[in-house]
TrEMBL record:
The keyword Oxidoreductase applies. Belongs to the UDP-glucose/GDP-mannose dehydrogenase family. It catalyses: UDP-alpha-D-glucose + 2 NAD(+) + H2O = UDP-alpha-D-glucuronate + 2 NADH + 3 H(+). Gene3D superfamilies: Cytochrome c1, transmembrane anchor, C-terminal, NAD(P)-binding Rossmann-like Domain. NAD(+) binds at D30, K35, T86, T122, E161, K286, R350. It holds the Pfam family UDPG_MGDP_dh_N. Substrate binds at F158, L159, R160, E161, K227, F272, L273, Q274, A275, G276, G280, K343. This is UDP-glucose 6-dehydrogenase. GO terms for molecular function: NAD binding; UDP-glucose 6-dehydrogenase activity. Keywords: NAD, Oxidoreductase.
Length: 477
């Protein structure tokens, strides 16, 4: 089928590349010329494992191209995906101006052939009808002899950054919202290879499940609500385990063991129960806020969702509280951050907990150093101009009074903590993701503090802290 994807951020690019991989003819459109040039040269503008490989293979077969010419792409395609950003406005509601601009472009360029307009962006509930109205009003202004025919379908995206290719070819479900049987049947045809797991083999894709993918068909509003509900539920699940971690720390229980104990109950499930210094990224924060805002617009006070956000706001600064418990005054101290991105296997810093942590450490007068495998120059975010970005583990820890593990990058599990402990003023590790082995760290000479779990090892550090006229409070976990 002939497909055009408008907006080549994470979602648009992955969608376009994956649809091309299963044999569709795909044109990806973006209004950022520099980005389009990069993609035309076969390079992915985002870091995502496996993406470049599949992108280059689809381009070499001739069924994937990139352009800034939106009108030609629209006119030549049967299925048009809207995949532009919907960031949060300062009020918390979703900024839909990019979706509106694309809807206008579609109304301006749509021709006689029947088309399906697919909303892949996460949009406020009711946007499907709104997009249809915008397209119709643009068409009316053209005074055409024959009115172009189209339908709008909501097809929310559930991929995770860092495993986007795997998630696209191994979805738990495909959600299609709309009331046109013609449009829904074209969408089912489009996704048939994914539903049937008939994907051309590629090392980057991983092992496909044997079962066919459930396709959930709904009305437009329900499909749009499913997207917000899924992200809000997952964020609430993490805030729940984080709240529990705070209780565990106080009563002397270990939240990692508690999560295992509850996660084996199939009604609860073991995923998204990893306690830490809070959830972030380009989706959870803005989508939970947008749902709270929608509820508010319709006269409902979404109390549980507001609590989910409150717990997360506190959790993002928990590492500072723990640093103060061991180091007392942070002014003049040096803190090293292991990781900056909101999760591993991405270079995305959007709404990353590291940003709040750096702001607060700056406010308290601490010096901040950081090491992230993918963030090694300050242009990624303005806050990084206040941070010493290091490119080696030695460079990071040298002269530090404490470390905070912010992102659970796999390489952090393999660092030589015996050597690193020797280079620090005081070898203290706040493990913000409960990712490291507490006993290994303690044996290496670290004073290890996790999130909602017992501390480990302190004899060597106690001596050094005493030397610095400090003392360790053993109840810091
Ligand atoms: N990032 C994710 O992991 C993820 C997952 C699921 C759903 N979503 C949702 O998907 C949507 C897109 O997210 P993203 O992170 O890919 O966005 P993004 O902001 O990274 O990228 C959007 C792209 O659209 C382009 N664009 C903007 N206006 C345009 C126009 N008029 N014409 C052509 N191109 C235009 C921009 O140049 C940019 O490249 C959002 O609604 C988001 O909530 C994102
Ligand atoms: O047990 C957990 C799991 C995740 N996180 C944090 O939660 C955030 C989000 O993680 P994740 O969901 O893996 O990343 P995203 O790529 O933002 O994906 C989410 O947001 C996307 C955009 O809407 C959706 O498509 C995905 O289904 C949804 O998982 C990150 O800060 C993680 O560190 C935890 O703290 N504990």
């Amino acid at each position: 089928m002939r497909v055009c994807v408008i907006g080549t951020g994470y979602v648009g690019l992955v969608t376009g590349v994956c649809l091309a991989h299963i044999g569709h003819d795909v044109i990806c459109v973006d209004n950022n010329e520099a980005k389009v040039k990069v993609m035309q040269s076969g390079t992915s503008p985002i870091y995502e494992p496996g993406l470049s490989e599949i992108m280059q293979s689809a381009m070499s077969k001739g069924n994937l191209e990139f352009t800034t010419n939106v009108s030609t792409a629209i006119a030549n395609s049967q299925i048009l995906f809207i995949a532009v950003g919907t960031p949060a406005l300062p009020t918390g509601e979703s900024d839909t101006r990019y979706v509106e601009a694309v809807a206008r472009s579609i109304g301006f360029a749509i021709n006689g052939e029947y088309k399906v307009i697919v909303n892949k962006s996460t949009v406020p509930i009711g946007s499907g009808d709104w997009v249809r109205q915008i397209i119709n009003s643009e068409i009316e202004q053209r005074n055409l002899d024959t009115t172009p025919q189209f339908d709008v379908v909501s097809n929310p995206e559930f991929l995770r950054e860092g495993s986007a290719i795997y998630d696209t070819f191994n979805p738990d479900r495909i959600v299609l919202g709309g009331n046109s049987s013609e449009a829904l049947s074209l969408m089912k045809e489009l996704y048939q290879p994914i539903v049937e797991r008939a994907i051309p083999a590629n090392d980057a894709i991983g092992k496909l499940s044997a079962e066919t993918v459930p396709v959930v068909t709904t009305d437009l509003n329900s499909a749009e609500t499913i997207k917000y509900a899924a992200n809000s539920f997952l964020a609430t699940k993490i805030s729940f385990i984080n709240e529990l971690a705070n209780i565990c720390g106080r009563v002397g229980a270990d939240v990692v063991q508690v999560a295992q104990g509850i996660g084996l109950d199939s009604r609860i499930g073991n995923k998204f129960l990893q306690a830490g210094i809070g959830w972030g990224g380009s989706c959870f924060p803005k989508d939970v806020s947008a749902l709270i805002h929608t509820a508010d617009d319709y006269g409902y006070d979404a109390q549980l969702l507001k609590a989910t956000v409150r717990v997360n706001t506190t959790q993002r600064l928990l590492a500072v509280e723990k640093l103060q418990q061991v180091l007392k005054i942070l002014k003049g101290k040096t803190v090293g951050l292991l990781g900056l991105t909101f999760k591993p296997d991405t270079d995305d810093l959007r709404d990353a907990p590291a940003i709040n942590l750096i702001e607060e450490l700056n406010r308290l007068g601490a010096k901040v150093k950081a090491y992230d495998p993918l963030i090694q120059s300050p242009e990624h975010h303005s806050i990084l101009s206040t941070v010493d970005l290091e490119t080696t583990p030695d460079g990071l820890v040298n002269g530090c009074d404490a470390l905070v593990l912010v992102t659970n990058w796999q390489e952090f599990a393999n660092w030589d903590y015996v050597q690193l402990a020797k280079q620090m003023n005081t070898p203290i590790m706040i493990d913000g993701r409960n990712y490291l082995d507490a006993n290994v760290l303690a044996a290496a000479g670290f004073y290890y503090i996790g999130i909602g779990r017992p501390t480990a090892g302190n004899s060597l550090v106690t001596k050094r802290l005493q030397h610095n006229s400090l003392s360790i409070d053993n109840k810091v976990a």
